[in-house]
Inverse folding.
């Protein structure tokens, strides 16, 4: 598969956005030291390759114990190899992750994240949230 990744775009608020040729975007925002928000939109076919995981790896290494908040409310789908890559990433980096909170609003995405949670063998590290207001509250805490 040909991977077409734009250069990371630095946004005015300091966030970084990756955009794939498939229309999928990842926006990374450092909330505070040790906490990062990842907003994903579109159908993730994997054209971004490991770039999103590399950004999270760098942040986890920088912080030591990362709280990761992942907003998937605008995700329309994800291919199996991408889900498998995330599962493997969670397994490899669980010692560097304090907590992963994922906002899911679609049954398919809820299922995909649930499978990744199960197969990553990370126990209660990954928390699924279905209410946007609750997700926002957890970000602020």
């Amino acid at each position: 598969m040909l991977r077409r990744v734009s250069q990371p775009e630095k946004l005015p608020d300091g966030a970084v956005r990756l955009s794939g040729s498939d229309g999928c975007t990842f926006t990374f925002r450092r909330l505070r030291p040790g906490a990062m928000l990842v907003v994903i939109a579109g159908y993730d076919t994997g054209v971004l390759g490991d770039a999103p995981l590399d950004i999270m790896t760098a942040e986890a290494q920088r912080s030591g114990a990362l709280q990761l908040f992942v907003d998937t409310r605008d995700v329309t789908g994800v291919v199996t190899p991408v889900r498998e890559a995330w599962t493997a990433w969670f397994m490899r980096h669980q010692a560097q992750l304090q907590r992963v909170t994922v906002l899911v609003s679609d049954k398919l995405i809820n299922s995909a994240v649930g499978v990744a949670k199960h197969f990553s063998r990370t126990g209660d590290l990954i928390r699924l949230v279905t209410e946007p207001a609750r997700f926002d509250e957890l970000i602020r805490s």
